[in-house]
Every structure is written in structure tokens, then in C-alpha cells.
Design goal:
The structure holds 2 protein chains of 2 kinds.
Chain A (H helix, E strand, L loop, with lengths): L1 E5 L10 H13 L4 E7 L14 E5 L2 E6 L7 H13 L4 H11 L4 H10 L5 E5 L4 H9 L4 E4 L13 H7 L2 E4 L2 H11 L6 E3 L12 H8 L5 E5 L8 H14 L5 E5 L12 E3 L5 H10 L2 E4 L8 H8 L4 E4 L3 H10 L2 E4 L2 H13 L1 H18 L2 H17 L2 H5 L8 H4 L7 H7 L14 H5 L1
Helix pairs in contact in A: 2-3, 4-5, 8-10, 11-14
Chain B lengths: L12 H16 L5 H16 L1 H4 L2 H11 L19 H17 L3 H69 L16 H7 L5 H16 L13 H5 L7 H7 L31
Chain lengths: 442, 282
């Protein structure tokens, strides 16, 4: 079997969510098929500047073919177009201009994928909202599997993405909530889909004491791992934690791991350790009492899965339906929506030993059941088998055309934010008890 | 108050969250989510904008304005008067423009209309801001109203508790009987120097021994029943040993390791704890 994985950026040093997801999947599927990664020369996801050499190189034993990006992103132009398509009635042409402005625009990459289609069994297109995924899905829909990595943002409400989701062969979702949102936005229930997510390379042995010695952290602590950014809910986390720290002067500390793009409050109980290598990160999670995930928007939190794999409960932002749903389905985490709940849940996890232990144990079970690599690989391979067995009509269905020159310029498209607001934001909750039928069907 | 037990492996997170929210509600009295406050505020806003409720002609007009779609603003530039999509006509107009200007000066008219167009645009941009300001004011007023109501309830509750405590204190005072001889009569403060002088001069060893004895006595407390560590019994005697447990016992709040989960209300009541982190009765 020959597979191509198309993703906006790729590299061993790139830790972005979708890109890391793509790398993990490519490396794992390489055990079962010939895998080639097709990507751009970009390293920076804001500018898409060509920083890597064009051509083929090996990354962890996987051939990676890079194509140049034709233009860098102009933030002002992209911002203007984003406001137009997200907040105002607009046309299909506006949305296409937005897509081109967002980038990374690499027609050469799309041409290569189209030329190689005959030799490939399937193409995995990562991140629905980028140029390569949209054009790739239209050009070779008969072989395209989409891994949307969709968050709850107005882009999902844009009209150009509906035909893409309805036209690909299959969709590999990250979570039940993501599937519910995409199906509500694009009516693609007929397209084969499965909730897969991604595994993680959890070390066989992580050593919390090693972390404590190395970084001189002595007191019990809660941990946050990820980019320290207002968009990730860190501002709210700091506000809540400072209030909590005033109420409990002897409670848990907060350890932050990741690069900071917002100011971190100076407080004796908040420790920022910067970006750490994977070994230290896993040691830190093992040393922690719990992981806090304050993000409002996630399609799948890999770090939450890693915490569960290491038997640590998660305290998540309840306004993120994906995280809330995962906490409920796994029975391995609590969630908050305001300060009072934050204080109560954090205190419960801090002070209630049996609760902490059982949540941690449930997390480990949940990870083992749904997110270990054999499970993930099996879901992909089963989907490939299913698509091969399916009749050819499904493969010929293709993506609906966009309409003619005039039709594309009619301002009939609703604002993306309006469409998104009509999509219910709720956690998908199993009918009876944790880890029930819904989890098994995943 | 409701307590939940962690007795089986199936932890129902939703149930735990329901109980935590119920606990918060009990503590805060009437509790509203952000959405509920917004709903309440919207109700008030509608009332506010209803001229029958407020009898404000201005607000009625404001409301009508919001309902009626305003005509689009007309952009007026210096070329607007002479614009045409027909090339020939545009050429003739341009050719004859000096003749027109010979008869009258259109520039002040163009300037005035241009300014008017800009004013219209500014006004249109301000209108939603006014509405937003009113909306936010009503929202905040609603929130404050709810807070005041909650605070009133808490004050009432605390004053009734205070009354009760005072009555109980008076009742207990009435019960206490004075029995001569039960308590040793107070001795007049004897001068330390006198007694020492009576025993003669003190050697350094004796002084050190007395200080040590005083320090030991000082550490002893009559109500010290929890053990030498001073920790609550639940933490000191039982518990599941995990990493850094000793550090937690020494520095953190007590972890209730008993099988019953939340053993008491105080274990889950951050707002009832004093600034030192010690539980306090509320």
C-alpha cells in the first residue's frame, strides 16, 4: 500500500498540534505501508516563509518532499479578509481569497499530489482549513482522507468547506465533539468517518524525582504544558490561580512548561520553566499532581492524553466541549467554567486522595483503551480496508463544483461566526456511566 | 450538604460536578451562570427599551431605529456629480465643466455633501456603540442587583447566627456556678528576683536547666490529641502513599485520604477558610 501524508509544515523540531499529529501518524503508518510526506518549505506558521530547502529529505526514516510557498502571509490583508468572511455576508470569491491569503499557498505541491495520484492508494490531508487540504481534496477526492483537526472557530462556517467535507472518501476525526460540529456545519453524515485521535510516545519509565532534583521543585504542584498564550486560556488560568493561591497559601504550586507569548505573573507559587525536551516534560507530568488545561478551543489535547497515560487527572476548561466531553467519557478529569468551580475542583483534586487516585487510574485505562498506538493504527488500517472494499461509485462522487464566475461573486454566503453560533456547543456524553457504548464505538 | 463517596472504580464526573455546583450554590445563596445573568439583563433591557415601562420618547426612537433598517449612506466625493459609466458622456461633461463653473460654483455644494456623508457614516458607527453601552450598563446593574440580594441574604443569615450564639453564650453563663476551692486562688505576683535570692545565687547549669524545662512546658498543649506532628488524624494515620506525600503533609492542606471522599463540608470549602489556610467554622 502506498500512502501520502500532506501537511502544511513538517519536521522533527516542529511541535505544533496538527503537524506533530501528522508526523506521529506518518511514522506509525510507515510500519504498514510506503509512506511519503508532502509538505512545504515553511517553518513558521505565521509567515509561511520558505526556510527549508526544496526537494526530498529523510526525517526519522520517512521521505519528506518539500515544495516552496509562492507568497508569505500578509497579516494585515489576512486580517481584513478574515473579518470580512467571519463577520459579514460575503461571496465564495471572498472565501477563496481568504484561503489563498491564509496559505501556505503551494500550487506545486498540489500539482505533485495530482500527478502522483495514480501511484497512491490514499492521501491523508491534515488540517482542513489550509490551502493544501482544500485544493488537495478537490483535485484528488477519490483518494483523499481528511484529518480535519478542526477547532470551534468561524472557519468551519465558511461555505467553501462544506463540499470538501462531503466530497472526500473519509474523515478521521479527533473527537466526538469535533465530529458533531463538522456534521452540523457541513451535513456530511454520509461520508465514512471514525473518531481516531492520535497516540503519543509515552516513555516506558518517567521519573518525577529526577524532574524535582533537576529543576529544584520541591512542593506539590499542578502543571500546565503548552504555549503560554491568552488564546489558550492562560490569562484566565493566572487570574484564577492567583485568587486560589490567596485563599490557600499552602496549596499546590503551578508549574508552566512552554514558550510564553504573554506576561506571566510574578508569584512565588508560579514557576515558569520554559520549553523543555520530551523527557523532562514527561518527568514533569509524572511529578505533578494534576494537569490543568485552560484552553477554550481544542480539537484534541495531546498533553491531556499524555497526562492520562501517566495516571494524572486533568482539570479542564468546561467551556471547551472537547475537553469536557473527554473528562466525562474517561471519568478521569474535572472541569470548571468560573472561579468558584475552579477553586472547588482544584481543591477536590488536591485534597481528596481516593478521588485523585481513581481519576488517575481511569485516565490510564482510557488512554490504553483508545489512544495507544496499536489501537490508532488499527483504526486507520480498518478504514483503508473499508474504503478499498467500498464500491467505485463512492470514489467517483467527487467534490461539488463551486459555481461559475458570477455565482462565486454573489454575496450570498453567511458570516462564518453566524453559522458557528448556530452549531450547538455541547460535550458528547455517553448514555450511561463512563466508558460506555459511545467510547467503545470510537 | 451532600457528600459523595468514592467507593467504586466508576467515577461519575458529571455527578461530582453536580455536587460541587450544588455546594457552591448553597454557599453563595442564589447562584446565576453568566448565561442566566445575560438572560436576565436582556429581559431588563427589553423593559428598558419599552416606552410603556420607562416612558422615554428617546428610547422609543432608539428602539425604532434599531428595528427599522436605515437607508445606506451615500458616499459623496468631488467627482460624484460628474460620474457616469458612459465614456462619451463622461467626456462631454468633462469638456463642458468649465462652462458650468462659469454659471455657478458647485464646489461648496460638493464640500457640504461630502461632509454630510462623513457625518452620516460617523453617526451610523456610533449608534451600535450607544446601544452596547446601555446594554453593558444594564448587564452590570443586573449583576450588582443580584450581588446585593445575595449579600443581604448572607447578612441576614449571619445576624441570625450571631443572635443564636449570643443567646447560647448567655445561657451557658447562667449555668456556670462558682465553687470555692475548685480553682486555686490567684497568688500575688511574686518577684522572681526575690525567690531566686532566697535560694541563693544561681549557677549557669541551673539556669540552663530551668530554661529547658520552661521550653518543654511551653510546647505542651492541653488539647493536643492529634499526635506529635500536629496533622489531622486522617492525614497522619492513613493515606495512599504517592510521590511527594511527605512534602504535602508537611506543607499543603490536609489530603483527606479516607474512603468516603469529601469527609465534611469544611474539606471542600475554600471560601470558608481563613487566610492561613486553616479550616474555620462558618
Amino acid at each position: 500500500m502506498k500512502l501520502a501524508v500532506a501537511v502544511q509544515r513538517y519536521g522533527a523540531d516542529i511541535n505544533g498540534g496538527a503537524e506533530l499529529h501528522a508526523r506521529y501518524i506518518a511514522e506509525r503508518l510507515a510500519r504498514h505501508a510506503d509512506v511519503e510526506v508532502v509538505t512545504t518549505c515553511a517553518r513558521d506558521y505565521v509567515t509561511w516563509k520558505n526556510e527549508r530547502p526544496e526537494g526530498v529529505e529523510q526525517v526519522n526514516g520517512i521521505p519528506v518532499r518539500r515544495f516552496p510557498v509562492t507568497h508569505e502571509r500578509d497579516p494585515n490583508h489576512f486580517g481584513r479578509l478574515s473579518r470580512r468572511v467571519f463577520d459579514q455576508p460575503h461571496s465564495i470569491a471572498d472565501e477563496l481569497a481568504w484561503l489563498d491569503s491564509e496559505g501556505p499557498a503551494s500550487p506545486a505541491m498540489i500539482d505533485y499530489l495530482e500527478r502522483s495520484a495514480a501511484k497512491l492508494d490514499f492521501v491523508l490531508l491534515f488540517s482542513y482549513r489550509y490551502y493544501h487540504a482544500w485544493h488537495g481534496a478537490r483535485r484528488m477526492s477519490a483518494k483523499a482522507l481528511l484529518v480535519p483537526t478542526a477547532e470551534r472557530d468561524p472557519a468551519i462556517g465558511l461555505g467553501i468547506f462544506g463540499p470538501t467535507f462531503r466530497g472526500v472518501r473519509a474523515v478521521m476525526y479527533n473527537s466526538h465533539e469535533e465530529r458533531a460540529m463538522i456534521q452540523a456545519a457541513t451535513r456530511n453524515e454520509d461520508v465514512p468517518g471514525v473518531v481516531v485521535g492520535v497516540g503519543s510516545d509515552i516513555p516506558a519509565r518517567s521519573d518525577g524525582e529526577r524532574f524535582r532534583r533537576k529543576h529544584n521543585v520541591r512542593k506539590p504542584f499542578a502543571i500546565y504544558v503548552g504555549r503560554i498564550d491568552e488564546n489558550k486560556g492562560c490569562k484566565e488560568l493566572f487570574d484564577f490561580f492567583l485568587r486560589y493561591a490567596n485563599t490557600f497559601p499552602r496549596g499546590l504550586d503551578l508549574v508552566l512548561i512552554g514558550s510564553a507569548i504573554m506576561p506571566i505573573p510574578q508569584h512565588p507559587r508560579i514557576h515558569h520553566l520554559g520549553f523543555l525536551p520530551d523527557e523532562d516534560k514527561f518527568d514533569a507530568i509524572a511529578a505533578s499532581d494534576l494537569l490543568i488545561m485552560p484552553s477554550y478551543f481544542e480539537s484534541l489535547s495531546m498533553v491531556a492524553l499524555e497526562a492520562w497515560a501517566l495516571g494524572r487527572p486533568v482539570l479542564a476548561n468546561g467551556r471547551c466541549d472537547v475537553l469536557k466531553g473527554q473528562c466525562i467519557r474517561s471519568g478521569a478529569g474535572l472541569y470548571y467554567e468560573r472561579y468558584e468551580e475552579f477553586a472547588e475542583t482544584l481543591y477536590a483534586l488536591e485534597s481528596n486522595g481516593p478521588l485523585h487516585t481513581r481519576l488517575g487510574r481511569n485516565g490510564r485505562d482510557y488512554f490504553t483503551q483508545h489512544y495507544t498506538w496499536p489501537v490508532i493504527e488499527r483504526k486507520y488500517l480498518d478504514m483503508f480496508d473499508r474504503l478499498k472494499r467500498d464500491d467505485a461509485s463512492a470514489a467517483r462522487r467527487g467534490v461539488e463544483p463551486l459555481g461559475g464566475w458570477l455565482a462565486r461573486r454573489q454575496r450570498k454566503q453567511q458570516a462564518g461566526a453566524e453559522v458557528l453560533a448556530r452549531i450547538p456547543s455541547t460535550a458528547v456524553i455517553p448514555g450511561s456511566g463512563p466508558a460506555s457504548n459511545l467510547s467503545r464505538s470510537a | 450538604m451532600t457528600d459523595f463517596s468514592i467507593r467504586s472504580d466508576n467515577v461519575d464526573v458529571e455527578q461530582i460536578m453536580r455536587q460541587i455546583r450544588a455546594r457552591i450554590r448553597e454557599k453563595r445563596g442564589v447562584d446565576y451562570t453568566e448565561e442566566e445573568i445575560r438572560e436576565l439583563a436582556n429581559v431588563k433591557l427589553e423593559k428598558f427599551l419599552d416606552p410603556r415601562g420607562v416612558r422615554s420618547d428617546l428610547l422609543e426612537q432608539f428602539r425604532r431605529k434599531r428595528e427599522a433598517s436605515l437607508p445606506p449612506n451615500f458616499k459623496f466625493e468631488d467627482t460624484t456629480l460628474f460620474e457616469t459609466h458612459r465614456g462619451l458622456l463622461a467626456f462631454i461633461r468633462r469638456l463642458l465643466r468649465p462652462v458650468l463653473k462659469l454659471l455657478f460654483n458647485p464646489n461648496p455644494l460638493i464640500d457640504a455633501l461630502n461632509i454630510q456623508s462623513k457625518l452620516n457614516a460617523q453617526q451610523a458607527a456610533l449608534e451600535p456603540l450607544y446601544y452596547e453601552v446601555i446594554h453593558n450598563l444594564v448587564l452590570e446593574t443586573t449583576r450588582l442587583g443580584i450581588d446585593v440580594k445575595n449579600l443581604k441574604m448572607r447578612v441576614e443569615s449571619m445576624s441570625s447566627r450571631l443572635d443564636f450564639d449570643e443567646r447560647r453564650a448567655r445561657a451557658l453563663e447562667g449555668v456556670v456556678q462558682y465553687r470555692p476551692g475548685a480553682v486555686a486562688p490567684l497568688q500575688p505576683p511574686a518577684g522572681a528576683g526575690d525567690s531566686r535570692d532566697s535560694r541563693g545565687p544561681e549557677t549557669p547549669e541551673q539556669s540552663e536547666r530551668r530554661n529547658r524545662r520552661r521550653r518543654r512546658r511551653g510546647r505542651r498543649r492541653p488539647d493536643d490529641r492529634t499526635g506529635s506532628t500536629g496533622l489531622p488524624r486522617a492525614s497522619a494515620e492513613s493515606g495512599e502513599s504517592r510521590g511527594a506525600e511527605s512534602a504535602r503533609d508537611a506543607e499543603g492542606p490536609p489530603r483527606n485520604d479516607s474512603e468516603s471522599g469529601y469527609s465534611s463540608d469544611r474539606d471542600l470549602s475554600p471560601v470558608h477558610r481563613d487566610p492561613d489556610g486553616e479550616p474555620s467554622e462558618s
